[in-house]
Amino acid sequence: MTIRVLVADDQELVRTGLSMILGAQPDIEVVGQAVDGNEAVALARSLRPDVCLFDIRMPDVDGIEATRLLAGPGVDDPVAVVVITTFDLDEYVFAALRAGAKGFLLKDAGPELLAQAIRAAAGGDALIAPNVTVRLLEAFAGARPTAPPPQPVEPLTEREEQVLANVAGGLSNGEIASELYITISTVKTHVASLMTKLGARNRVEIAIWAHQTGRMRRRAGDGDAR
């Protein structure tokens, strides 16, 4: 399956470079380019790409607002969005994830990680740059919660606890499958069940819940029922 991508960046050189990198991948096709957030939202709604790759700092409507309009809470038919930026600022990370982004990368991430983030978003996963992930989860772990984390609507199974710990550790579906000796489709089923039980919109919210409830202090393989 070819992943159709829309790229938005106000700098022509960057926009062209990102499009060339992605277009060189055998399973990715760049179907449109936008120079600002307004054009990005309009193109996304007309072209319906599988994934949008948005720069944060763009004129008029920035990448975060464009993400909220296309993937935020209340959007009936959300589009997967990966946000990419030069600026390694926590407020950008938090704002992008709250807006509904499924990925957050820095522009120095490299072609391989960029392609991985696009594929992850197309598959329903969230890929955050590793250095950003560590800092993000540390910030949540160190912050005093304003309210107790919500309880699952149903108790988690032993296998779901294992998948939860691995998701919170930043592993992809493929890596979790290898770690737990199960299929990728089984991992996806468990992740979907976790999202339903926890009321989480994405893998990042699953990871945050794991940190808030102390699950990250447990080993993912404890009590492994293979």
Automatic annotation (TrEMBL):
UniProt keyword annotations, A-Z: DNA-binding, Phosphoprotein, Transcription, Transcription regulation
Q: Where is the Response regulatory domain?
A: 4-122
Give the HTH luxR-type domain ranges: 149-214
Q: Which residues cross the membrane?
A: none
**Source organism superkingdom:** Bacteria
SMART domains the record matches: HTH_LUXR, REC
PTM annotation (4-aspartylphosphate): residues: D55
Any Pfam family hit = GerE
Per its UniProt record, what SUPFAM superfamilies does this chain match?
C-terminal effector domain of the bipartite response regulators, CheY-like
Q: What PANTHER family does UniProt report for this protein, alphabetically? A: TRANSCRIPTIONAL REGULATORY PROTEIN NARL-RELATED, TWO-COMPONENT RESPONSE REGULATOR
- This protein is called what? Response regulator transcription factor
* Organism for this UniProt entry: Microbacterium luteolum (Aureobacterium luteolum)
